[in-house]
Design brief:
binds FE2/S2 (inorganic) cluster, alpha/beta, eight-stranded mixed β-sheet
Amino acid sequence: MTFKPAPWPRKLRSQHWFGGNSKDAIYRRSWMGNQGFPPDMFDGRPVIGICNTWSELTPCNAHLRDLAERVKFGIYEAGGFPVEFPVFSPSEVALRPTAMMFRNLAAMDVEESLRGKPIDGVVLLAGCDKTTPALLMGAASVDIPAIMISGGPMLNGHFRGETIGSGTHIRHFSAAVAAGEMTPEEFAAAEASMSRSAGSCNTMGTASTMASMAEALGMAMSGNAAIPAVDSRRRMMSQLTGRRIVDMVKDDLKPSDIMTKPAFENAIRTNGAIGGSTNAVVHLLALAGRVGIDLTLDDWDRCGKDVPTIVNLMPSGKYLMEEFFYAGGLPVVIKHLGESGLLHKDALTVSGGSIWDEVKDVQNWNDDVILPVENALTASGGIAVLRGNLAPNGAVLKPSAASPHLMKHRGRAVVFEDIEDYKAKIADDDLDIDETCVMVLKNCGPRGYPGMAEVGDMVLPPKVLKKGVRDMVRISDARMSGTAYGTVVLHTSPEAAVGGPLAVVRDGDMIALDVAGRSISLEISGAELAARLADWTPPVQKPAGGYAQLYHERVNGAEQGADFDFLVGCRGNDVARESH
Ligand code: FES
């Protein structure tokens, strides 16, 4: 940690818009004044953007305007000038073909908004799977002082005496209906019980994982990830975040100061300890690319290998984010990593101090929620990175969500050429499949779907479910929801749609998975594989125009975070030319 605050006072970038008495400055102050801002708001104090993904069509972010008001209190208190602005809000709930296709669009919106507007620092207000990484990515590429405040998870769901978690129980119930153990009417009756307050998914799904990543990276205040959306302390932290960003601007404490390689390694280890989502892999790879950090899949495997999963939350465990907060939340986990020699203790955070200073005095208030290491859910909880002739550029698997008896498995491939093929065949009793087979799904990667859909955790065939079987080995180039579970090999790269070996797997091929050995193999000869690849023709039509075409042409592979090739890197915050 070598951060040295910049001298203060000094001229800020917002003064290039508002300072002095030129025609343009008067024009801008006059226009801004129509909202009732007093003239002294433009006197050189820090102008703080509140970048808000609020949207009624992103229901997990629908309460963020309320939190933005609290952020404003804090900014005013600290002597700043808050200006809230909306950015594109990719909702996990209601956006087709997939919210992931629009993460990069949102990140572009954030980047260009921050660079083009009179903003000296920014509060990133987000709370869904893609909104969180998108805002961090956009801010990283501009590199002005930035701090994240998450929307927070919703309260626990309850249905007929059972605690139910976002996403995870949809899958449990859906499988139970397919197995004939639950009626569709009972499933529908659970609907109102699942999402009963404002906030993001209450499992350790992708939203909670990414809020935890923001905190572990040092980009949010300590304790941010777990405070429930409706808890008064979420509002309090919003206000404190507003105060803090003003001082960060004065100190010129930027994302590039905080998001260093050690910070990413802390985040990867934290992901292992919380049993976090596999989606964190693509998002952190993309984010690292924005700040110019050389982060690879091998870093994920190396850093995560020795980290036990100690957070007993669904989908890997038993509890939900509400209990995690009451137990002490993420600071307890980070403290544990520090005590185990698995933390870069001196990594800088938005506090201006070290991450260790933030957590060293916290306590675990419930060791059934945050487990002692000897009772860990999984001894090696990090994301396993698999390679082999089926995934030359890598594939990932989440051990804490997988079945121990399937971690080494050899089975006959049952191939689905795309998601429509899967949907058409899976419920057919004549499908030649049993629980020893390996389900293979193609053409669901970044280009293939497009947008790398969360379909990798294919629901098992009903005839297998009816036997009481709940897991099989599944392989695809897709992602899976952070609320999902199973022995699921994801992000297989190169993806099928660009001619990766996954594209030429055939029904009846034998596939061998060995998680401990980090391998995934298609058991055919090199010559046979080469011949099949030489015969392969792309099945995917190029989107005709619009953002989908841009995405298809410029998206990187999953092993690079599925960012656009032209967005990798930091383009800085130079003040643009005058527009008049
Ligand atoms: Fe937005 Fe889960 S759908 S947080």
